[in-house]
Design a protein that fits this description.
alpha/beta, globular
Length: 241
């Protein structure tokens, strides 16, 4: 069985619960630490699927690995491999598939609710979480659009582009369902000044700093349960590669 490659761009943008989820689904995982200077593989032939994590950089930043990852995504798509992107990863994947990434009108940070769809595609991917408001963890200033024909499976009041399915196998998720309590603490330690600034500016898409670190065990456990449903469907695409 070929492993799933997970591309990690920053310390804060670690895979979190994704590694455990994929292993529980019978997959092997290989982390590619881009933040440590690991090269982007020249081909995806050695992998059964690719997962791209978040990061503080943007799609249009002048970093050589960004274009290399987009090229790798396009090769994987042509081969029929399933791709998944989280936050920055979703923006990169949207770009690779013919959409666009751009600066959102305002940052979205902290605990925010998204609304999952209730159509057939949404029910197939979200399972029992379809048609619900789900609390998830956000930390992004950019967003993305998808080309026509892509299935949107979640929206939100502050940022519409939350989750999409492309070509019945690619998963794009703007928010951070993968977070653990440790990663949320690290996010606040490294980037809490962004939250405090935006909250002081009365940005409505930023949660109260006093709430950020509350009930982390239960909140992250729920997010992991939701993400398990998405990846249980995602790994089905691996058999078609």
């Amino acid at each position: 069985m070929k492993p799933i490659a997970i591309f990690q761009h920053t310390r804060v943008g670690a895979p979190g619960t994704i590694t455990d989820i994929l292993q529980s689904l019978g997959q092997t995982v290989e982390i590619i630490p881009i933040m440590d200077g690991a090269p982007v593989p020249p081909t995806c032939a050695a992998y059964g699927g690719l997962v791209f994590m978040g990061g503080s950089m943007g799609v249009h930043d002048a970093l050589p690995w960004i274009e290399q990852e987009i090229a790798l995504m396009r090769e994987a798509d042509a081969r029929g491999l399933p791709l998944a992107g989280h936050c920055l990863g979703s923006q990169l994947l949207a770009t690779a598939l013919g959409g666009r990434a751009f600066k959102h009108r305002q940052a979205e940070i902290g605990w925010q609710s998204i609304q999952t769809g209730s159509d057939a595609v949404s029910r197939e991917w979200w399972q029992e979480f379809a048609g619900q408001n789900i609390l998830t963890f956000q930390w992004h200033q950019d967003t993305f659009d998808m080309p026509a024909g892509t299935a949107q499976i979640a929206t939100a009041g502050h940022c519409d582009s939350q989750a999409f399915i492309a070509k019945d196998r690619h998963l794009l998720v703007q928010s951070h369902f993968e977070m653990t309590p440790e990663l949320i603490h690290l996010s606040f330690e490294k980037n809490g000044h962004q939250l405090l600034k935006q909250f002081g500016l009365k940005n409505p898409s930023v949660s109260d700093p006093d709430d950020l670190l509350k009930s982390l065990d239960s909140r992250t456990a729920t997010m992991k349960s939701v993400l398990c449903r998405l990846y249980a469907r995602w790994v089905k695409g691996i058999s078609h590669t």
